[in-house]
Amino acid sequence: MSSVKIECVASEGFRIGESPVWDEKEGALLCVDITGRKVCRWSPAAKQVQTVPVDAPVSSVALRKSGDYVITLGTRFATLKWKEQLVTTITHVDKDKPNNRFNDGKVDPAGRYFAGTMAEEIRPAVLERRQGSLYTLCSDLSVVKHFDQVDISNGLDWSLDHKTFFYIDSLSYSVDAFDYDLQTGKIGNRRSIYRLEKEESIPDGMCIDTEGKLWVACYDGGRVIRLDPETGKRLQTVKLPVDKTTSCCFGGKDYSEMYVTSASDGMDKEWLSRQPQAGGLFKITGLGVKGVPPYPFAG
Ligand SMILES: O=C(O)[C@H](O)[C@@H](O)[C@H](O)[C@H](O)CO
Ligand SMILES: [Zn+2]
Q1: Are strands 164-169 and 153-158 parallel, antiparallel or unpaired?
Q2: Per CATH, which fold does 5-285 belong to?
Q3: Bridge-partner residues for 51, per DSSP?
Q4: Residue 247 CA, ligand 2 centroid: distance in Å
Q5: Per-residue pLDDT reduced to its tens digit, 229-240
Q6: Is 204 a catalytic residue?
Q7: For 155, which of 16, 168, 208, 238 could close a Cys bridge (C-beta 3.0–4.6 Å)?
Q8: What are the φ/ψ torsions at residue 143 (nearest 5 degrees)?
Q9: pLDDT per residue as tens digits for the range 133-171
Q10: Angstrom distance (rounded) from CA 138 to CA 146
């Protein structure tokens, strides 16, 4: 058994840290602070976080083939030029829903950017239900809507053979799978592969490892869990020193480290004083598994 080590590498006090992505070219960990309205880049070499402030809640960031990044900002897909700190809108969704914003997003193995929306929260996990939809931004910059009636569109990833799409609508307390057609980007045949137990609380961000197992960050559960999508069994639980663990990704050398983001929104003074690292970025080593490099957006 390897020995698992957890370290808070950046105690940024993020309001809602989310969407960790390893940027191999920069040797840095990208993430966003949704309600803090900034995109962040943590460099382990410099032990330093750079941030780009934006003008709306920014809920995900992804690499782009042509360099730089794409983000989901408010209800927009946009590009982000890091050095210039320049954000350019690509397209809007949910135009008829002014109270909506994007939430989690990730690029598929063919370079399509998947991201879903939700109503703005009144407080954590309290919001107008079924206002969200799941979208894809294709490389030709057209948008496809897959379905609506989503509560909190959250974690997403693809199986190693690219034939299954995994997805979380948080308030269903379920991790779902769809058949995936990589050629067309179409999804179908939705089913649940895992239902969270009470103490695991709310499923949030998710990533896959090189053994095809899923890692799910549990919001208010203070943990990441490893699931076998074939058997529907939980294989491992790793607890963190903060309750509001929001998302996870692999990064670092050979993608052997796991990075976990966290949130502090919705915590009162007493709670924050018990968990001073709330909103920090955590690095987990010694898991004995590796991750899959993130796919860049092809447009
Ligand atoms: O991190 C996210 O994906 C949402 O934007 C958060 O707000 C939490 O998930 C939510 O509060 C949990 O219910
Ligand atoms: Zn999330």
Answers
A1: antiparallel
A2: Neuraminidase (2.120.10)
A3: 40
A4: 6
A5: 999 999 999 999
A6: yes
A7: 168
A8: -115, 135
A9: 999 999 999 999 999 999 999 999 999 999 999 999 999
A10: 13
ipTM: 0.94
Query: In this model, does residue 1 exceed pLDDT 80?
Result: no
Catalytic residue, candidates 33, 169, 204, 265 = 204
Q: Which of 196, 218, 299, 233 is nearest to 263 (CA)?
A: 218
Read off the pTM: 0.98
Token pair in block for residue 224: 């990441």
For 189-258, give the DSSP string: EEEEEEE--GGG-EEEEEEEBTTS-EEEEEETTTEEEEEETTTTEEEEEEE-SSSBEEEEEEESGGG-EE
How does residue 86 score in pLDDT terms, banded at 50, 70 and 90? very high
Query: Using a 6 Å cutoff on CB, does residue 154 contact ligand 1?
Result: yes
Q: Quick one: how far is CA 241 from the chain centroid? A: 19
Substitution candidate for ligand 1 out of 14, 16, 72, 247 with most atoms within 8 A of CB: 16
- What spacing in Å lies between the alpha carbon of 1 and ligand 2's midpoint? 30
* Structural element, H or E, at residue 269: helix 269-274
